[in-house]
Design brief:
Strand order of the largest sheet: 1-2
Largest sheet: 2 strands, antiparallel
Radius of gyration: 20 Å
Number of helices: 4
Order of helices and strands: HEEHHH
Structural class: mainly alpha
Helix content: 55-70%
Strand content: under 5%
Shape: elongated
C-alpha cells in the first residue's frame, strides 16, 4: 500500500511554485477587476475615515477614540478595529504582498504624525507613539487574516471542483 501524499495548504501567489499547492492569480477573488476594486475599496475606506473625522469636528468628540486598553506599552482603541478591518480587505484583495502593504500602512502613520504636528490638525491626530506602533500591528494582523481567508477560500473551491 502506497503512502498517501500529504495535503498542503495552498500557498500565496508570491510563494507560487509550479506544484498544485500554489494559488494562481486566477483563483483569487476579484481577479479580473483587482486594480479597480482596490481603488474603490481605498476610496470607500478614505471616505469612512473622513466622515468620522467630520463627526469629530461637528460634535467635538471622536466616536472611535474610545480607549480599550491603555498603558505605557499598550494603546488600543476603537480605531484599532478599523485598522484590522481595512487591512483584512486589502489582504483579501492583494494576498502575498505583505511588505508593500506594511509600507503603505507605515506611510499612512507617518502622514498622521506630520498632520498632528500641524496646529489645525492636532486635535484630529493627537495620539501617543505607542498607539502608532499598535496601529501597525493591527494592520499586519488584519492583512494576515485576509490572506488566511483567501487560502481557505481557494482550498474550499478546489475541494468543490474535485467533487464535481
Amino acid at each position: 500500500m502506497e503512502p498517501q501524499p500529504q495535503s498542503r495548504e495552498p500557498e500565496l501567489p508570491t510563494d507560487a511554485t509550479p506544484d498544485e499547492g500554489a494559488v494562481c492569480e486566477e483563483e483569487l477573488p476579484f481577479f479580473t477587476t483587482r486594480g479597480r476594486t482596490l481603488f474603490l475599496y481605498l476610496v470607500y475606506c478614505s471616505g469612512v475615515v473622513v466622515c468620522i473625522h467630520l463627526l469629530h469636528a461637528w460634535y467635538g468628540d471622536d466616536p472611535l477614540a474610545i480607549p480599550l486598553l491603555h498603558g505605557p506599552y499598550i494603546s488600543i482603541d476603537s480605531w484599532s478595529a478599523v485598522h484590522l478591518m481595512v487591512f483584512f480587505g486589502v489582504g483579501v484583495l492583494f494576498p502575498g504582498r505583505m511588505v508593500s502593504m506594511f509600507l503603505y500602512g507605515l506611510a499612512w502613520e507617518m502622514l498622521e504624525f506630520v498632520m498632528q504636528s500641524n496646529k489645525p490638525f492636532r486635535e484630529f491626530w493627537s495620539e501617543p507613539t505607542v498607539n502608532t506602533i499598535w496601529d501597525l500591528w493591527f494592520n499586519a494582523m488584519g492583512y494576515r487574516l485576509g490572506e488566511w481567508y483567501v487560502v481557505r477560500l481557494v482550498k474550499r473551491r478546489r475541494l468543490e471542483r474535485k467533487k464535481e
